[in-house]
Write a structure and sequence with these properties.
Shape: elongated
Order of helices and strands: HHHHHEEEHHEEHHHHEEE
Number of strands: 8
Helix content: 40-55%
CATH topology of the largest domain: Lambda Exonuclease, Chain A
Structural class: alpha+beta
Mean pLDDT: 86
Number of domains: 2
Number of helices: 11
Length: 302
């Protein structure tokens, strides 16, 4: 049987993404330093990278939407787009990246983020990764003289599902930018300190740097290249306590429905076997019909 076009297209998309330079060579830039500290450590020490057979659809769509937004902002708002930025952090580490939108006349930076729905970010605020990323960009642009001290950074969230039409903006003032620069330096110190212990044979220190959970690391949109190094063979149970009464009730209801479903499925399979070879109608009007050797239909008929 020939391979279906959809399968060929999916494989082509996976191979195309894997061949991109950023997929083949890992580096630490502003977007990584606010993420998982164990990821940062693995990149620093050159740990072996694990392959990925998934096409990162969400990231690709986000990139395409971002490129469109940048083009519009450049043409209609006078933004400078895709600005290379090199930042020297207070601890001497130099990191480079590319800023989405720069508005020199406003003394401001803009960074486009896409999400499926904006309710989470409206409720919980921007992630640490996002805040650190734009803070590093802004500091670097000030160091380069593109922006001046006192600059602001705006995270511009767009709903890529298309349900919400407005752009949700979170702006960091200069004082918050300085705060997040301090946070990233502290996080890097954590990594350096843990690595010193690991070099001394105390490998358990790597566990303290794991800032994400297996559902996140193994999700198709992430597929962390170090996922098995962290979690293969490990037991993981969430540490958070669910205290909201309504949420607890939903969990209990889910368990009850799941158990009832599993029990009903077992009974259904047993009864199905008892009807194997039976065909006809019951006095109450049910039709029993085996469409194929393993496909049974029991339906109500007039």
């Amino acid at each position: 049987m020939s391979v279906m076009l959809g399968e060929e297209l999916h494989q082509a998309l996976v191979e195309h993404e894997a061949a991109r330079p950023r997929s083949r060579q890992l580096s630490l830039g502003p977007s990584e330093l606010g993420g998982c500290r164990e990821y940062v450590r693995n990149v620093m020490v050159g740990s072996a990278v694990q392959g990925n057979s998934e096409w990162p659809t969400a990231a690709v769509v986000g990139t395409l939407v971002g490129e469109h937004v940048e083009q519009v902002a450049q043409e209609m708002l006078g933004a400078v787009t895709q600005v290379p930025v090199t930042t020297t952090l207070p601890n001497g580490l130099v990191v480079s990246g590319t800023a989405d939108l720069v508005f020199p006349e406003r003394n401001a930076l803009g960074d486009v983020k896409t999400k499926v729905g904006l309710s989470d970010v409206r409720k919980a605020g921007p992630s640490l990764e996002n805040c650190i990323q734009v803070s590093i960009y802004t500091l670097g642009l000030v160091q380069a003289g593109v922006l001046s001290e006192g600059a602001t950074a705006s995270l511009l969230y767009i709903d890529r599902s298309g349900v919400e039409q407005s752009v949700y903006e979170v702006t960091l003032e200069w004082e918050r930018i300085e705060y997040f620069i301090g946070v990233v330096v502290d996080r890097l110190n954590d990594v350096i300190d843990a690595q010193a212990h690991i070099d001394a044979g105390e490998v358990e220190f790597a566990r303290a740097l794991r800032d994400k959970t297996p559902p996140f690391c193994y999700s198709p949109r992430v597929m962390c290249p170090f996922r098995d190094l962290c979690w293969k063979g490990s037991e993981w149970v969430p540490n958070e306590t669910i205290e909201d009464a309504d949420t607890v009730a939903v969990v209990e209801q889910f368990v009850a429905v799941r158990d009832a479903y599993n029990s009903a499925a077992a009974v259904r399979a047993e009864l199905r076997e008892k009807l194997r070879g039976v065909s006809g109608r019951t006095p109450s009007g049910y039709s029993v019909n085996w469409a194929t050797e393993n496909t049974l239909y029991v339906t109500k008929v007039a």
